[in-house]
Amino acid sequence: MKYLKYLLLMLFIVFIYLFGISSTCDNGPSDPTAGLYHTYAEIDAELHALASSYSAIASVTSIGESVEQRDLWAIKISDNVAQDEDEPVVVLFGCHHAREWISVDVPFLIAKYLVENYASDTLVARLVNNSEIWIAPMVNPDGHQYSVTSDRLWRKNRRNNGNGTFGVDLNRNYSYQWGGPGSSGDTYSDIYRGPAPFSEPETQVLRDFMQQMSPKAMISYHNFSQLILYAWGYTYSPAPDEALLDSIAVVMAHKIRSVHGKDYTSGQASTLYLASGDTVDWLYALLGVPSYTIELRPTSSLRPTSSYPGFELPESEIQPTFEENLPAALFLIDWAIDQL
Ligand code: 0X9
Ligand code: CA
Ligand code: ZN
To answer: How many structural domains are present in the chain?
Structure first.
């Protein structure tokens, strides 16, 4: 009878041990799931898996770290991928805004499509052979993780503002026209611009990356509203290259519509609303190259309801949203190659 106490103690220890192990497995609190959408851990693993399966044309690099020291992963896709060749660079970004989960999956699926179809598709091969395509599908990993684990509608990064509020809007933190209309100096605001231009490690990383790469074209994916937006966003005045920016946007909209019939409206960003310090204005001011914010599904005419919420695009729409955006991205890469 006196051994029963020890037996129960042993069982208790075994139970605690097993419980501890199960909580570190998939879907435990340390490894959350976003259903069919990709989490940070899944993007990390899958980008590395693509690069190891297709090492001749794909490599993964950490271009820098977030506030909470997560890597900002980018996959480079090109022939002779280990070499920095004299080929036009095209950059695709996803997830400046944490809750915009589809903006992660679309550029990720484009990367996957390019490497998996290189051997069989002559168009893909020509584009990959003649350009250097850099795709960073999750540039706000801390915010995204927070959106998955704690607050689905989180938008900003996870900067501790020091007054009980968190987060800077990365798409208001770029230096060009920083502090202008459509941004806020209030730390609690969802469009808080940060204490200074490029105050955030994420935007510093993206600034340094784009300065080093000198891309010939760029797309930054967001959602929602189905729009293709170009500079300027900080003013209603037209950009010097408005005609070129618009003509490329019109072709991309046409290509998108041809896949599943979805209408993406092209136009100057300020026609949506004025916003200062965004990615597109900064890159266009720096290099004058075609740069776009693509706002993915859903359309804004369907007001969010419990059955069709704006940022929470149903999982069944991940694949079609990728499919319709693929030819638009391929067109922009092709355009960049033609500029040589
Ligand atoms: O407000 C933004 O940063 C973007 N929309 S979102 O709903 N994804 O947050 C739009 C940025 C477009 N740029 C300007 N209007 N300046
Ligand atoms: Ca190359
Ligand atoms: Zn956004």
So the answer is: 1
Structural domain containing residue 259: 33-303+326-338
pLDDT tens digits for 239-280?
999 999 999 999 999 999 999 999 999 999 999 999 999 999
Strand pairing partners for 218? 91, 291
Residue 210 or residue 25, greater confidence: 210
Instruction: State the CATH number of the domain containing residue 189.
Output: 3.40.630.10
In a domain, 295, yes or no: yes
Sheet arrangement for strand 291-299 = 58-65, 71-77, 132-136, 89-94, 217-225, 291-299, 227-230, 265-268
Instruction: Map 13-65 to HEC letters.
Output: HHHHHHHHHHCCCCCCCCCCCECEECCHHHHHHHHHHHHHHCCCCEEEEEEEE
Residue 309 counted as domain residue: no
* Higher per-residue pLDDT: 55 or 22: 55
In a domain, 231, yes or no: yes
Q: Is 275 in the pocket of ligand 1 (CB under 6 A)?
A: yes
Task: Give a yes or no: residue 152 inside a domain.
Answer: yes
* Phi (first) and psi of residue 99, to 5 degrees: -75, -5
Closest atom of ligand 1 to 234 CA is: 16
187 lines ligand 1 (CB under 6 A): no
278 lines ligand 1 (CB under 6 A): yes
Answer for the pair 249, 228: CB distance below 8 angstroms, yes or no: yes
What single letter denotes the amino acid at residue 319?
Q
Helices (H) then strands (E): counts for the chain: 9, 8
Residue 178 pLDDT:
99
Catalytic residue among 46, 100, 295, 324: 295
Compute the distance between CA of residue 80 and CA of residue 292 in angstroms, rounded to an integer. Answer: 28
Q: Report residue 310's pLDDT band, with 50, 70 and 90 as the boundaries.
A: confident
